[in-house]
Specification:
392 residues, alpha+beta, 6-stranded mixed barrel
Length: 392
């Protein structure tokens, strides 16, 4: 019999114990993988939207807790446009907020959707595909265009009406498709309409720098840094307390408060999952060693060295972990799809588990199996053959 087959046979002797151990570990690991996947997918979606639009800097109000709380005047945006290092048509301002969507009778249709206020010359308009109707113009007051996924979800089309904040109704004049997932589930209106709806001015803008060196080179990074410093030095004479924070797309994604919360939750759940997993595997393997004391004594008596016994017990523990990783990963994939379908998070979470996260989950679970099996393996290897055989 092959050594690997021997390990598998040991685990299948008590299938219920092995199955329950795998299930408990899979739940813990699956939860951790789900959170890792959600965090990764959101970060990737935001970063990809900036990278595909050649954004060098993302500018918001400095010191705000949540990015949607940012609020500053258009005067600062105009000052940025005049900076020598900024590319022509390289500034795209926006007002982004999250609002409930209402039915005509005043009841809530969706608790939270992303609302974007753009100027007609916003570069993002050139990146979206118009499926029906028309895009917004300077005169498009009281009119909106809907992302295709949102339009499908709420069953609205061109000519229909949507309601924001109960008393604010807007005519749908177009349906668009965007490569950015959260834009495809958003309402887009004119900047003036968004300002009227929220009472804010600008929540942020993107900047493309006029670079003389290829992107990614130290010279190009120095040029971006120079523009960043110039932007952060700007002041609004009518609102001198406001400061701007200019960050590269990667730095901006890292600083997002919502993602920081998800990262913290992921670490917390990960630590709890590891502790639960280690205890679960430890308990299973200790019981297995106790029940097979005589068998281990016989194996030692026929010539098995302590190293071989350790390999057997650790092999069983790691195999339990790997099976749990597979079950947990499948559960995580299903969980992210169900979560993405939830009305409370619709449009902000992409389903699926990337291969990178799967590999991390499998690696962590293998470590859990290894740590949970060390003590039982050493204990089994230290058994004296004569005492183990006499064990009752």
């Amino acid at each position: 019999m092959y050594f690997s087959s021997f390990i598998l046979k040991n685990l299948t002797r008590r299938p219920w114990r092995s199955a329950l151990t795998v299930l408990g570990l899979a739940v813990a690991v699956g939860t951790m993988i789900s959170l890792l996947a959600v965090n990764h997918n959101v970060e990737f979606a935001v970063s990809d939207s900036f990278n595909r639009r050649d954004v060098d800097l993302v500018v918001t109000q400095a010191g705000v807790v949540f990015e949607t709380d940012s609020d500053f005047s258009e005067d600062l945006v105009e000052q940025v446009r005049k900076l020598s290092g900024v590319a022509e048509h390289g500034v795209s301002e926006a007002l982004v907020t999250v609002e409930p969507l209402y039915r005509e009778n005043g009841t809530v249709l969706k608790e939270s959707i992303m609302v974007q206020g753009w100027k007609p010359d916003n570069k993002a308009f050139s990146d979206i595909e118009l499926l029906e109707g028309q895009l917004l113009t300077e005169e498009s007051m009281g009119k909106v265009i809907l992302g295709s996924q949102l339009a499908s979800n709420i069953k609205k089309g061109v000519g229909d009406t949507i309601y924001l904040r109960v008393d604010s109704k807007y005519e749908v004049v177009g349906i668009y498709k965007s490569f950015v997932s959260f834009e495809d589930k958003a309402v887009t209106m004119s900047l003036k309409d968004a300002q009227k709806l929220t009472g804010k001015r600008i929540t942020g803008f993107s900047v493309r720098v006029k670079k003389t060196a290829p992107s990614g080179t130290p010279q190009a990074e120095a040029e971006v840094q120079k523009v960043k410093e110039a932007i952060e030095a700007l002041r609004d004479s009518n609102d001198p307390t406001v400061r701007l924070a200019a960050r590269t797309p990667d730095s901006y994604v890292d600083s997002l408060t919502h993602l920081k919360i998800v990262r913290a939750m992921t670490w917390m759940v990960g630590i709890i999952a590891m502790v639960i997993g280690i205890i679960s595997v430890l308990n299973t393997m200790v019981m297995s060693v106790l029940e097979r004391t005589q068998e281990i004594g016989i194996l030692r008596a026929v010539g098995w060295p302590p190293r071989r016994v350790i390999q057997m017990v650790l092999g069983e523990a790691i195999l339990l972990g790997l099976v749990a990783a597979v079950v947990g990963t499948v559960g995580a994939i299903m969980a992210t799809h169900l979560l993405a379908m939830s009305p409370k998070v619709d449009g902000f979470i992409e389903p699926g588990v990337p291969l990178k996260i799967m590999a991390q989950g499998i690696g962590i679970t293998a470590v859990i199996g290894l740590l949970g099996g060390i003590y039982p393996a050493i204990r089994a290897a230290c058994l004296l053959p004569t005492e183990a055989i006499r064990h009752d």
